[in-house]
């Protein structure tokens, strides 16, 4: 076995199937997952946790020690992968300007433990602690606290029998969720090691790997297919779950259930646009009015009209944006690009074409979301311009080679298509 993995959240069924096939030992399954796989619940401590990102369930957190990075890239070939350069629960020292490396540190402690990796550009610290997969120990007021996942009173009393003697000596103890799956003897030995590490300041190897994966629609559709081999699953299951959790569950009780009505309900008269960069940062583009749409069991497409105020220059096209200018763009669940046609608000003449290469767009309530693949194409007058290919190469650290190659293949296809069909202004 490669390691013990705990999996939680809306992707649990599909990921349990996949990581089991990779020879990871799945532990701490929910009763529902255990029943689906016809297994006994395996209540052993986990080395690795895979779960939904609390702020956005379109992302997955992977944390712990022992995960093989190549396996993550294999499962999520067309998604963005961010690996923290600083381990979760590692001990760091902020400099005089309250930074560590290129990251802002909050609060500005001279030394502290990382409790939030810098996926948004900021490291969050707390006071220094010795940490294991079962507990945290540090000097303080002599209190015991518990993970939110340890809510059984009998279990808390069991753990208090071990931590109370340390509390009386002035140590704080926080029990982590894994503690309820270990024996008293294992936990007693672990606390003894943590106290020694804390007092001797042996923090050099402390910390857990942390990955934040921003899922693409193609990878969610792949997870749909994996889940379908275990239990009845409609197309777009994992995408629709982000907006219609109970409705999807109800629909899947009917083996002939169709996602069409839920897909239609996601499309409002005006759609926002979430443009996600390779490092996981979201940029919100000017949204648009839906002027045409089509939804069926196989997918969806919609055409937006985006209107502009007179300000700035059209990116890649180089022409000034005048008041009343507008963009007509189609979003199609099957296409890895969107063609933006920019028109003059004065005489409706075509100012230029900009083709954004991205993963196929997914739908949330009143919003379109896609992963931007950096490389783009602009058509200006009689010229085809390939933009930001160097940026794609730079950002490839966040992508599997399959995604980088796909972006380049799409760009080459579009250039050939434009030339063969003489789509030059």
From TrEMBL:
- InterPro entries, A to Z: DUF402 (IPR007295), Ntdp-like (IPR050212), RNA-bd_FAU-1 (IPR016730)
Q: What class of enzyme is it?
A: hydrolase
One Pfam family named in its UniProt record: DUF402
What gene name is given for the protein in this entry? fau-1
Q: Which GO terms describe its biological process?
A: rRNA processing
Sorted alphabetically, the keyword list is: Endonuclease, Hydrolase, Nuclease, RNA-binding, rRNA processing
Q: Which GO terms describe its molecular function?
A: mRNA 3'-UTR AU-rich region binding; RNA endonuclease activity producing 5'-phosphomonoesters, hydrolytic mechanism
Q: Which HAMAP family match?
A: RNA_binding_AU_1
- All copies of domain DUF402, residue ranges: 279-421
Q: What does this protein do?
A: Probable RNase involved in rRNA stability through maturation and/or degradation of precursor rRNAs. Binds to RNA in loop regions with AU-rich sequences.
- Put simply, this protein is called Probable ribonuclease FAU-1
State whether keyword Zinc applies: no
